[in-house]
Amino acid sequence: MSTPIQVWNYRTLIGNLAQRDLKSRYKKSVLGWLWSLINPAVTLAIYTVVFGVFLRAEPPVAGNGTTSSFALFLFCALVAWNFFSGTINTLIGNFQAAGGLLTRTYFPPECPMIAGLMTTGLQALLETAILLVFMVIVGNASWTFLISLPVLVLLALFSYGLGLIVGLGNVRFRDVGYLVGIALQVVFYATPIVYPITIVPEGWQALLRVNPLTHFADGMRDAFYLHTMPTAVNWLMMGGSAVISLVVGWWVFSVNAPKVIEEL
Amino acid sequence: MSAIVVDDVSKKFRLQTDRAHSVKELVTRRDRSAGTDQFWALRHVSFEIPEGSMYALVGHNGCGKSTLLRCIAGIYQPTEGSITANGRMSTLLELGAGFHPDLTGRENVYMNATILGMGRKQIDRVFDDIVEFAGVSEFIDSPVKIYSSGMYVRLGFSVAVHVDPEILIIDEVIAVGDEQFQRRCFDHLYDLRKRGTTVVVVTHGMDTVQTMCDNAIWLDHGVPQLEGPAPKVAQQYLMAVNRAEAEGDSSRQLAGGDEDDDHDDSEVPADNGGGDEPASTGDYRDRAGAPSITDAGTHWGSGEVRITAVDVLAPDGSELVNINSGSQVRIRIALESSVAVENPTVGIALHTEGGVHVTGTNTRLSNLETGVVDGAAAVEFTSDRFPLLPGSYMMSVAIEDAFSQHTYDRYDMAWRLNVRQSSDKVIHGLVDVGGEWELSGFR
Lengths: 264, 443
Hints:
heterodimer, A: mainly alpha, B: alpha/beta, Coagulation Factor XIII, Chain A, domain 1, six-stranded mixed sheet, 18 strands, 32% strand
């Protein structure tokens, strides 16, 4: 079982793995890292048109009292979602991809996973920065932007713990990859991202609030759009889910990864 | 102090066919009886590797060497027993493992070195040496996918040996690369050892084991066969291989009909029949032709005392081309020492061509104080009635220290002795034990 200290000793490797992923990702492409912006931009545009224009979803009034933009309202939650789904999708393949290395040389198997989280974390920071710039442009700026930092950190821990488990599971059973693909679709719509939770019938709202991602989406919207403090329930759900996911994920992974490596 | 202690290690694997590949299989599989599709890759392996020594794991393919190496490296965890390693470890199980084809040589060097546990600043310090050693300086900023396989391998090795490990683990990788690079690898390994690096290798090159390693373990199907001084282990392993081959040969002959086999007696052991088949003896010098030291087979040792000539003589001192079974034989070993050496042990051994150890003796076992040798000297061994039966035997000669723990010079199975029939008495086997028959109670 790898301890956090062992993993810390390999921080240079983690950094290099992350760097390698980033460098090799856009090699040979003309637009290079711009692709990491084009993708979310297109998603944002599609959802804005479909849900904001065609379905006329009503966004609440923003924190400055005047702005009301469905695109920005959506963008806040979409940053959180992209971070979550990006991490899951990256980690599900990372353990498999590092398998060749792990059977030939020893290093804590957590390393490629943390490296994966770093790349998606960087992407999330980039998107957050763009969101921030947009908010400033439309005159909806506030100190509450700072709240997004702890929200993103907790979201990172939550996603990482789950990512460890699916990454491990995917090596053992290929079904996991397909299951996760479907699960992500379901969860996307089970989280109030493309719609405000208020349009959902009361009974269903309670169900959505069991989903930790609802609270992360809330957190990002509170910070950037509504400029309010997330509720105690929000914090409790974010913190609790992050801790549980991380502890369980780390434990399951570090106990089982060495066994799985032997069967690679 | 031991760099690595392997304590009663066993490793069990599940066979891949046994495992469920999908969740559905896992749920629906009826036969989940464990234990049927498992096998032990290692069984009760124990040894210690002293700091700064070189240790070899030998054995045929699939004997568990690589599994053991992976256990030592920490990639696999032993099912039973424990392994402790003291020191920073660098593993070289596959050259260039972890190279990303699209990244440049420079990026990959940094990548690979960090996998081996190095920090950025440390890499900066040795980066030029790595590139120099690998000889790829012109291409260091090109993606490694354009590298030739030789360049790829050289860069991989170069990184692994320059991370300045305290323990270096190498799996049969030196065999790749051209002659010149191999020599540089060995030189570098030698340097590392001088600096106190512990080296563990898996190799099929018995020359490497005999000349470079201090100790070795021989595994067969995961079970340790022999552990001890490397030359001894290598020799015993080679003999076992020879023996297995000889058995294979004789069974092939039986299967193919034995019209060309002049031994019509099935009781004759296969080993003894070897004398009639010169085909497998190409490596050995024939006794006929009076070998001098220069044309004998490979030898090893530290060289303070060297064997300069070995002669097989008749009682009258003339050179013997063929030995008559049962007659007197003198074996004269001429030595030369460059420094004064106290009480060296001089020994000889005889093996059949099939590798069966027929006999061996030395001055120490015969309670002979050899005294000091300084300069040229000679030892003579006389057998009054040479007891070996007709056939072909391989002779080994060695000079060791007083306790047979250190080898000054040693030639293994370097001379062939042809023993001929000298009487009309027919005896089967390897030796003539002499003796008389006596009857009682017969009518």
